[in-house]
Design a protein that fits this description.
5 helices; alpha+beta; 156 residues
């Protein structure tokens, strides 16, 4: 009986997911790759560094002999979210997002075209491999200190 009473007065550790959301780590490697078309030169370094071969880039010659990215596609169903594409981009045109809700009904819906990957204001960017961005992101919730006690109280 004492065990039951002790657990009834403890703080809840379950979060009611759709209504309440926890902040993930600042360096979280999320579901979507975010592509900045203004910075991208179409060099293809990200596609070459992808271990799975999930990034497909098709370029053509444009004005002033510069590359124009015709096709930038990511197969997120096969992606292992290692972040090598983000690390290898010499122009900082790729970011990982903070999104983690990625369930789809069909496998072909996991192939994301460049229009879906383009950087917009409403996409939350991860601080992975970007220490300057990491400071501006919210702190992770539900952190534990070394003694096993929560450092943030979410339920008051």
């Amino acid at each position: 009986m004492w065990v039951t009473l002790r657990h009834t007065v403890r703080h809840r550790i379950t979060t009611q997911y759709p209504e309440q959301r926890l902040n993930v780590s600042r360096r979280f490697r999320g579901y979507e790759l975010v592509w900045d078309k203004e910075r991208c030169t179409g060099c293809g370094t990200c596609a070459k560094s992808c271990l799975q071969g999930n990034i497909e880039i098709v370029t053509s010659r444009g004005a002033e002999n510069k590359y124009v990215v015709e096709k930038f596609e990511l197969d997120s169903g096969r992606c292992i979210f290692c972040g090598l594409c983000v690390e290898s981009c010499p122009y900082d045109a790729l970011f990982l997002s903070m999104e983690y809700e990625c369930a789809k009904y069909r496998r072909r819906e996991l192939v994301l075209p460049k229009e879906r990957l383009e950087r917009t204001e409403n996409k939350r960017l991860s601080g992975y491999f970007r220490p300057d961005m990491e400071k501006a992101l919210p702190e992770q919730t539900l952190l534990l200190d070394k003694a096993g006690k929560e450092t943030q109280d979410l339920w008051r």
